[in-house]
Specification:
Helix content: 25-40%
Strand content: 15-25%
Number of helices: 11
Bound molecules: 5-S-methyl-1-O-phosphono-5-thio-D-ribulose
Structural class: alpha/beta
CATH class of the largest domain: Alpha Beta
Mean pLDDT: 96
Length: 352
């Protein structure tokens, strides 16, 4: 799987005419690149997790909006922006929890509107440039998160992570995995314990694959083994990503994250949330206001099996995310540094 090192989850094709997605539903068995042009196929790729992870979703939507704008047939600025707004709303509805999706789309619309005059090609160029800027900034932001996160761990540490908040979820380095990737580049050795992350197995299929491709020592565990490895004394820190962080620090991330946080607190292990400022949503007071995506029951009952593993018709509850209470979080690692409690106060001054 070493070719995964050369692949980025989202890009534009050579002619700047199509959005190119590494189809993450096929990993680790197949490396499939998809070229997408139509709003419906771009939305489908986001909704079906062909591209996933909060920052990568934002970048895909931004590039997707630019690509879709190439197909808008409008003879006035007003008509162009009306059509753009409707595509933007369509893409924004693909997944509700990760705030980076709406954040990136809003940025794109603002950049386009900042262009004066009637010339639609010039507006399209502004959309193109803004999408690349969002991607480029993300790589820098992730690297900065890595630098700050690296100050929290030392050579030889055991680190537990949940889901995939690595390169596959961003434009480079990842968020939760950035300190590990950066440390490895500098010759440090960490031992990562990757939760498999049911039901969609982002830990087994993506994190394990990404880390081992980078030569990082990785042990895959089932989600229900986290307590055991903590009890064994193998974990010195937990690093996870985030999809949306409320003003008080309550954090939505992949389902199962809050359970890991409860365990970490019990065992006295620091629990760090690594996220760019674009993942913070200061408009929400607490985690109870974060919309939580619920997904199809079949992801639990039959997706990974040749035969059903549960009786037909069984009721299933399949939330894609949960909210970790801010009291369980030791600190946030952002591009601007490490935020420790009191989160509400610190975040208010950061966003004021
Ligand atoms: O459903 P997914 O795979 O998009 O969920 C991803 C996560 O929960 C990540 O931890 C989060 O988006 C941060 S990615 C840097």
């Amino acid at each position: 799987m070493s070719d995964i090192l050369e692949l980025y989850p989202v890009s534009l094709d050579e002619d700047n005419q199509a959005l190119v997605i590494l189809d993450q539903t096929r990993l680790p068995n197949e490396t499939l690149l998809l070229s997408l042009r139509e709003p419906a196929e771009i939305r489908e790729a986001i909704a079906m997790l062909r591209v996933r992870g909060a920052p990568a979703i934002g970048i895909a939507a931004a590039m997707g909006l630019y690509v879709a704008s190439l197909r808008i047939k409008a003879d006035s600025r007003e008509a162009f922006f009306a059509e753009l707004a409707s595509i933007k709303a369509f893409l924004a509805g693909a997944r509700p929890t990760a705030v980076n999706l709406a954040w990136a789309l809003n940025r794109m619309e603002q950049a386009a509107k900042a262009v004066g005059g009637e010339s639609i090609p010039v507006i399209r160029q502004a959309l193109h440039d803004e999408a690349l800027r969002i991607q480029d900034e993300d790589a820098k932001v992730c690297r900065a998160i890595g630098e700050h996160g690296l100050t929290l761990i030392k050579d030889g540490d055991g680190i537990l992570t949940h889901c995939n908040a690595g390169q596959l979820a961003t434009s480079r380095y990842g968020t939760a995995l950035a300190p590990i990737h950066l440390g490895a580049e500098r010759g440090m050795n960490f031992h990562v314990f990757a939760d498999e992350t049911r039901p969609l197995l982002q830990g087994a299929r993506l994190t394990a694959c990404e880390l081992t491709a980078h030569g990082i020592r990785t042990t895959l565990i089932c989600d229900n083994m986290a307590s055991q490895v903590m009890k064994n004394g193998w974990i010195q820190a937990v690093f996870v990503g985030a999809d949306r962080i409320a003003a008080n620090g309550d954090t939505a991330n992949k389902i199962g994250t809050s359970g890991v946080a409860v365990l970490a607190k019990y065992y006295g292990i620091p629990f760090y949330v690594c996220a760019p400022l674009s993942t913070f949503d200061p408009s929400l007071n607490s985690g109870s206001q974060i919309p939580i995506e619920e997904r199809a029951p079949t992801e639990i009952t039959e997706l990974w099996y040749e035969k059903r593993m549960a009786p037909a018709g069984i009721d299933v509850y399949n939330p894609a995310f949960d909210v970790t209470d801010h009291t369980l979080i030791t600190a946030f690692v952002t591009e601007r540094g490490i935020i420790r409690p009191d989160f509400g106060k610190r975040m208010a001054s950061l966003f004021s």
